[in-house]
Amino acid sequence: MNRRNFIKSASLASTALFLPKFVSGFNLLDEAIATGKKIVIIQLSGGNDGLNTIVPFRNDIYYKKRPSLAQQKSNLIGITDEIGFHESLIAHSDLYNNGELCVINNVGYPNPNRSHFRATDIWHTASDANEYLQSGWIGRYLDASKSKSLDAIEVDDTLSLMLKGEQTDGIATKNPNLFYRSTQAPYFKKVVEHHDEAHLSEHNLGYLYKTMVTASSSAKYIYETSKTFSTKTTYPNTGFSKQLKQVAQFINSGLQTKVYYASLGGFDTHANQTNKQKRLLSVYDEAMAAFIKDLKQEDSFKDTLILTFSEFGRRVQQNAANGTDHGTANQVFLIGSQLKKPGFYNPMADLSNLDENGDLKYEIDFREIYTSVLNNWLDIDAKKVIGKPFSGLNVV
Amino acid sequence: MTLQEIVHIYNRVGFGISYTAASALQNKSRATIVSQVFDASRKVKPLTVDVSELTAQVRNAQRNDRKKLRSLIKDSVKKVHELNIAWIYRLGTTQEVLREKMTLFWANHFVCHDKNILHIQQYNNTLRKHALGNFKDFVVAISKEAAMIKYLNTKQNKKEKPNENFARELMELFTLGRDQYSEKDIKEAARAFTGWNHDFVGNFRLRRFQHDYGEKTFFGETGNFDGDDIIEIILKQKQCAQFICEKVYRYFVNDQLDPSRIREMTEVFYKDYDIENLMRFVLLSDWFYDQKNIGTKIKSPVEFLVGVHNVVPMQFEKERELVYLQKLLGQHLLFPPNVAGWKGGRNWINPNTMMLRLNLPSILLAKGAIALDEKGAFEDDFQRFNTKRNRQRKLKVLPDWEMFYSEQKNITTTQLQQVLLVSPLNKGTATYLDKLADQDLKEYCIQLMSLPEYQLC
């Protein structure tokens, strides 16, 4: 019997012995630990300008449409004869060279919405543009895989729609210590200790008590497990870095959680974009560099897939304020050591064929990517989660 | 009425009642108390924030000055937040309890959002005005509101190129419910609403050249219908009365529908679509006071916050923190998640919101700390987004315990419990509370409000 199996059977035994019947469905360790696969989802919130992130430096239209905003070739990190990475993306260009980065260009969906809120909801829920769903794709993954709340963690104080399911919601916590302490108030412990299972099944009160017990035992498990690991990697001193450091601690300590979500905001660059985007992309890139180093050191990188998206790209034509307005399709980054098609999955967008707003026409539906992740990485039938027939891409 | 029944009705038509007020009503009949509830809500007091400065600026602004317009929008959004705060305080202080509760109900029925303070404020007061009135007048008024005309794209609905968004949601969400109409009905209804628009200050305007005056066939009737006619035909469907009654039942009575009660209510409502009559019927009926309907509903975040405030009045030094609390709890008034509104019920509760609710009374009333990192707004700049991470702070809230004690003069812990907890108690929790019964009233109050049972009303 190896260590994992031992923990698993030991914990099942204790669950059965000590917890009241109505919570005994709460098995802290479940089947999924066997595969050990994790996905970390990162949102560049506000709409990152993809065209200045991965730059077609031989394209005349690009320079014509962005007289003061276009990236000059000399500033870029050259990747191919035609494409360069933004100068801030140092770690990403290394990943590219190592075959650990897959850039999927021109990802979007039909009838794109240019509102941050609506576009974010669409990406979070995997809905059509005219469809309003109240649960997120990760939340529905929890439902479909019969997972627990703690199987999906958002490293923040509030829970985003992405992690809300029909039956089960994920957990939001940026600081497992604080989260745990919130369950340790003396009165609270007494209430948890004193509750009994009488008439707690169908009644709303039963639901409240169950949720309370879930919160309390998840907080304890997350706190006690994650504190067993302390990193040897130095992280930059930014908020986003702290979030990724926390995710690395969760993963490296052997937490069973399968999905993590964090976001970096500020990409809504309507004015004076150049410096802002440069700074934001280096916050993102430097944090990722430390994060990946941390995972590699503990040999957990091989089981981790990182997906970075933004709710939309920005308009091809720059505006008068040296910025860009809300656009449509954008890149998605997949990072990992088990990528099926590292490098560029598909060609860059065709700048000579834009929609009536002067925005990119999408080529790949974002739900194709979700479908691949669900089918091939998280081992679940994607149809149960996405609800629509996408065939997926050959990426993971 | 019994004390429990009095607490029950005031939990549902308002945000609870003090022991003193409840015991003063105890010798009165149900009919008297119900009449009192309606009489107290006769007046319509519009809710407004000061927009004079903004209006003056709008008047002087050049339409092509983009920078100025952007800063005006920013100022307007600030005012919408101000209206949000004013609304919460209104809920905690109003005399027109039922009218305000119904306004809250309708705000999550005729869901709408707008950044323009003039338009959203007017919209909010239209909800208040019609909250207990005639449902048909209500639907017509809502359809002509500038905020709604923008929110559901009626503005873009033109004869040459109809936009079906409003017509669809009018039937699916506002009147009939999903799948109670054909796609053809939507197309024809959309034509009838073409040309419906508004002017700059928010008055309704019919743009004649964009309106389709042609013949339409809708629910089997044919004529040169306009929007008003369409609404009239929709209300002829009994399904419309039933759909609204189901929603009222879920909100005011029980999450779980009881078909025979819905039938009774539908008969009453279909007659004249008078909302007050319907509510009177519900509040006077015996079944409203059945044990299975008492203490079973999960409070919305706003019901929870206002409920605490009604027991111990609180003043937020930083109003931003009150906005933040609404976001953490999952209900930010005037900022609905989408056109379907908040789902309510068990959807309010997840491990995070549950822990927050249980901790909130000590955070608010006993200087507990809370993690206060707000997710940035999209409009925020880099600095606001990326500073202030991982902080725990104390909220700047001043609880008015003097007021609490003067309201609860000579009241025992048991009596306080009778008005704060109406759901059946978990047995273990009851034993635990017994041990605390001789505690200080203030401590005991915080304790009661920190229980899962307090989340129910």
TrEMBL record, chain A:
<dbReference type="InterPro" id="IPR010869">
    <property type="entry name" value="DUF1501"/>
</dbReference>
<dbReference type="Pfam" id="PF07394">
    <property type="entry name" value="DUF1501"/>
</dbReference>
<protein>
    <submittedName>
        <fullName>DUF1501 domain-containing protein</fullName>
    </submittedName>
</protein>
Automatic annotation (TrEMBL), chain B:
<dbReference type="InterPro" id="IPR014917">
    <property type="entry name" value="DUF1800"/>
</dbReference>
<dbReference type="Pfam" id="PF08811">
    <property type="entry name" value="DUF1800"/>
</dbReference>
<protein>
    <submittedName>
        <fullName>DUF1800 domain-containing protein</fullName>
    </submittedName>
</protein>
